[in-house]
Design brief:
alpha+beta, two-stranded antiparallel sheet, 4 helices, 2 strands, 54% helix
Length: 71
């Protein structure tokens, strides 16, 4: 489980979601990924989840979440 310090980091920019939400922090992205339905859990989201669990740099996670959110 990622540390609270990591979860509180800001993404590189606010990211809009398909359901009209806005992801601003790593914690927002984590919560969004956890709530995805099975049919939306594609490879891009799985890659984002791996980056999250590895506590990758927030900038790298942001790029992957941005990619996954638009596909």
């Amino acid at each position: 489980m990622p540390t609270s310090g990591y979860l509180s980091q800001n993404l590189r920019r606010p990211l809009p979601t398909k359901d009209d939400g806005i992801l601003r922090t790593v914690a927002d992205a984590a919560g969004y990924m956890m709530a995805l339905s099975k049919d939306r859990q594609r490879a891009h989201w799985q890659r984002a989840a791996r980056l999250l669990l590895d506590e990758a740099h927030a900038h790298d996670l942001s790029r992957q979440v941005e990619l996954a959110a638009v596909l």
